[in-house]
């Protein structure tokens, strides 16, 4: 059965396959389909006959066809209609169809999501679903209930991912979903295979990585890393060599001022408006370009200030000095007090302070998220996250975690837990940072001496923009001792990171 039969390419292929399996050239397998456009349905019908099959194509909106659980297999490539264009009655009907299977789809869901659910309802117990779907099945939030549904209802889930774009003209990358054993779930794992392109599908290897998503509905993008690299991550976290950043401490959002232009001041500006030093606090200036090294020191902050960067946060002492009162008046005169975030405060010019963090974590990254020790004890805005280390780990973490994090495993895992944003930027939210794999306190402690030995060298490489050379140095320190697990897998980990970072920036460049 083909739920969106179109010109019947899938139905024709199915006829050929069934004839082969029957080992009888005279067999005329019955293939059913649904297609909303009558013209396509007619062409499809003819093609199935020419191929030697018996077609039965219903011209209808698939979502108005009542599911009968009678089919061995449902195959196809459902239409991909973005939610903006998927509206009115057709969306309501599709959402209701999904709801009949107990799946509540958000209004943001594209048409394919409801197709997956409704298609499954046509399967006999034990039946199979084979669909070509947009790769966003793996990642978008609105597909979470679809991912959950698949894991809940099928006994076996296989995914085939492509390195190259399969349909260069199509808007979306695709994945193959092969789900078997309908009604015999749940399953906790999927098998994932990567292949280069449509041609290489013919020689798809039987070797798949068995992969368990952290939660059934969670993102499946981790599977893109490929078998060996995922095994390495699993092995390293199983032996506690790598742990989520949360083990080290809490990551939180920075200060929201309501107007960085007003509240973040350069030292020159502080003098110009006559504020005293004590009316301001040290600040990591907006942006994160200055946080690409291992530490933000007091000297660096001073240098940034001399360069005119906004390294002071307006936070006036009480009682107000005449200069502070004048600056506040100037803010009111220019309407800063009416900006939403200012307006909702008890005292509009008193930004809610967050204590200086132990480490700063960049959240928007062209290459990879960076941890930097906040030696300058600067406050930080919401362009970076603050990491507050647990008491037990503070000393070691401040000294060595930024350095130890410059390794291949941590870089790869950032690609997995982070999100690709416009322009190919990798964004990391605090809750993603919590699970981001960093070297464990034990691993760092065990290698502390050697890490100290390479700290200057890595700092110099980072300052020169040679991230991957710096990674190589840290890898050499960390992985010769960690049971050889990572060492064995290191090439695969590097390759996976390279592939994922490359895909991210290539997509960014093409505007997707
Ligand atoms: C990506 S194409 C599938 C092509 C098909 N596999 C073939 O071999 O030609 C999607 C098809 O779904 C059809 N379609 C779109 N919305 C539909 C709906 N609600 N019910 C049934 N068919 C629909 C479109 O007319 C189009 O032919």
TrEMBL record:
- Name one process (GO BP) from the record: methylation
Is the keyword Methyltransferase assigned to this protein?
yes
InterPro entries reported for this sequence? DNA_methylase_N6_adenine_CS, M_Eco57I_C, MethylTrfase_TaqI-like_dom, N4_N6_ade-DNA_methylase, SAM-dependent_MTases_sf
Q: Which SUPFAM superfamilies did the record assign?
A: S-adenosyl-L-methionine-dependent methyltransferases
Pfam families from the entry?
A: Eco57I, M_Eco57I_C
Catalysed reaction(s)? a 2'-deoxyadenosine in DNA + S-adenosyl-L-methionine = an N(6)-methyl-2'-deoxyadenosine in DNA + S-adenosyl-L-homocysteine + H(+)
Q: Where is the Type II methyltransferase M.TaqI-like domain?
A: 62-167
* Gene Ontology molecular function, alphabetical: nucleic acid binding; site-specific DNA-methyltransferase (adenine-specific) activity
Q: Which organism is it from?
A: Corynebacterium halotolerans YIM 70093 = DSM 44683
Q: Which PANTHER family match?
A: DNA METHYLASE (MODIFICATION METHYLASE) (METHYLTRANSFERASE)-RELATED (PTHR33841:SF5), DNA METHYLTRANSFERASE YEEA-RELATED (PTHR33841)
Q: Which family does it belong to?
A: Belongs to the N(4)/N(6)-methyltransferase family.
Keyword set, alphabetical order? Methyltransferase, Plasmid, S-adenosyl-L-methionine, Transferase
Q: What is its EC number?
A: 2.1.1.72
Q: What is this protein called?
A: site-specific DNA-methyltransferase (adenine-specific)
Gene3D superfamilies given in the database record: Vaccinia Virus protein VP39
Domain (Type II methyltransferase M.Eco57I C-terminal) spans: 218-478
């Amino acid at each position: 059965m083909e739920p969106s039969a179109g010109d019947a390419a899938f139905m024709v292929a199915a006829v050929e396959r069934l004839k082969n399996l029957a080992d009888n050239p005279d067999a005329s397998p019955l293939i059913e389909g649904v297609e909303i456009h009558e013209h396509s349905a007619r062409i499809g019908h003819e093609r199935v006959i020419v191929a030697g099959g018996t077609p039965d194509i219903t011209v209808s909106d698939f979502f108005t066809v009542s599911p009968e659980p009678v089919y061995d297999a449902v195959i196809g490539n459902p239409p991909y209609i973005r939610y903006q264009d998927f509206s009115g009655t057709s969306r309501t009907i599709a959402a209701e169809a999904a709801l009949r299977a107990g799946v509540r789809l958000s209004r943001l869901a594209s048409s394919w999501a409801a197709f997956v659910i409704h298609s499954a309802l046509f399967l006999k117990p034990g039946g199979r679903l084979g669909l070509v779907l947009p790769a966003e099945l793996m990642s978008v939030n609105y597909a979470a209930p679809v991912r959950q549904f698949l894991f809940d209802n099928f006994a076996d889930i296989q995914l085939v991912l492509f390195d190259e774009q399969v349909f260069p003209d199509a808007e979306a990358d695709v994945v193959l979903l092969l789900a078997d054993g309908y009604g015999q779930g749940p399953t906790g794992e999927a098998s994932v295979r990567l292949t280069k392109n449509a041609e290489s599908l013919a020689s798809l290897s039987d070797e798949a990585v068995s992969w368990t998503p952290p939660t059934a509905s969670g993102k499946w993008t981790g599977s893109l890393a490929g078998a060996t690299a995922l095994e390495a991550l699993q092995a390293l976290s199983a032996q506690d060599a790598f742990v989520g950043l949360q083990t080290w401490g809490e990551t939180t959002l920075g200060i929201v001022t309501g107007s960085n232009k007003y509240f973040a001041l350069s030292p020159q500006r502080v003098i110009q408006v006559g504020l005293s030093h004590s009316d301001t606090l040290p600040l990591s200036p907006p942006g994160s370009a200055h946080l690409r090294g291992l530490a933000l020191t007091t000297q660096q902050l001073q240098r940034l200030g001399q360069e005119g960067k906004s390294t002071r946060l307006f936070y006036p002492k009480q009682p107000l000095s005449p200069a502070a009162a004048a600056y506040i008046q100037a803010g009111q005169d220019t309407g800063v007090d009416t900006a939403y975030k200012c307006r909702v405060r008890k005292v509009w010019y008193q930004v809610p302070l967050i204590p200086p963090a132990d480490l700063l974590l960049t959240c928007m990254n062209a290459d990879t998220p960076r941890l930097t020790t906040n030696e300058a004890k600067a406050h930080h805005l919401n362009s970076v996250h603050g990491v507050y280390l647990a008491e037990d780990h503070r000393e070691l973490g401040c000294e060595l975690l930024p350095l130890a994090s410059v390794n291949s495993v941590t870089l790869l895992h950032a690609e997995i837990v982070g999100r690709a944003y416009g322009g190919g930027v990798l964004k990391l939210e605090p809750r993603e940072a919590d699970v981001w794999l960093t070297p464990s306190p034990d691993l760092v402690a065990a290698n502390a001496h050697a890490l100290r030995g390479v700290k200057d060298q890595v700092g110099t490489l980072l300052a020169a923009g040679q991230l991957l050379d710096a990674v190589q140095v840290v890898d050499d320190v960390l992985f010769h001792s960690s049971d050889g697990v990572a060492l064995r897998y290191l090439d695969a980990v590097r390759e996976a990171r390279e592939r994922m970072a490359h895909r991210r920036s290539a997509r960014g460049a093409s505007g997707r």
